[in-house]
Amino acid sequence: MSVVAFERKPSAGLWSETELNTMVAALNVAIASGGGRGCETGMTETGDAQFYLLGPLPDQACELCVSRIGGRYILEDGSGRFLFEHQSLALVALHAKAAVQSMRGWLVARAVLLWCTIRHLIHDKVEPLLTEGEELLVELAPQLAAFA
């Protein structure tokens, strides 16, 4: 891995109001959806500005991070995986919005997978027990009727 040294400006760790408005506008749907989601600003160890989209309460884990290093904006997911990089914050904000929207898709996919797993469990484990019980009742019914 090669390391690239970026030029530092004196205000490298501060976001301008225009930059913050751009990111908040792009992520407004995710922030306003409720559940305690929010955003926060911070700095890297070297003083570069960062913007975090935080998950729902109580954990508020980082879901997305936008860093400004030199004149470039870098978008990462909550695990630190690189998603996108560009000099235009508006373009990075569009990719951040798309990444947040794709997170909802994972939730739907997990719910569908859970539903299919439950149906499969019922089909393979519960239904055979019910049909065996019916067969046993059919065989024992005449003998039980003799006692009645």
Please describe what this structure looks like:
It is a single chain. By secondary structure, this protein is of the alpha+beta class. The chain has a domain at 17-104. Helices cover 50% and strands 21% of the residues. The chain has 3 helices and 5 strands. It has helices spanning 17-26, 28-32, 89-147, and strands at residues 38-43, 49-54, 62-69, 72-77, 82-86. It has a 5-stranded antiparallel beta sheet with strand order 1-2-3-4-5. A hairpin with a 2-residue loop joins strand 3 (62-69) and strand 4. The longest helix is centred in the last third of the chain and has 59 residues, at 89-147. It is rod-shaped and about 95 Å long. It starts with 16 loop residues before the first helix and ends with a helix.
Instruction: Give the uncertain stretches in residue-range form.
Output: none
Number of helices: 3
Largest β-sheet summary: 5 strands, antiparallel
SSE sequence, one letter per element: HHEEEEEH
Gross morphology is rod-shaped
In angstroms, what separates the terminal alpha carbons?
85 Å
Task: Assess the beta-strand content as a share of residues.
Answer: 15-25%
Q: Helical residue percent? A: 40-55%
What is the average of the pLDDT values? 80
What is the strand arrangement across the widest sheet?
1-2-3-4-5
Cα-based radius of gyration, to the nearest Å: 27 Å
Query: Which structural class should the secondary elements be placed in?
Result: alpha+beta
The number of distinct β-strands equals 5
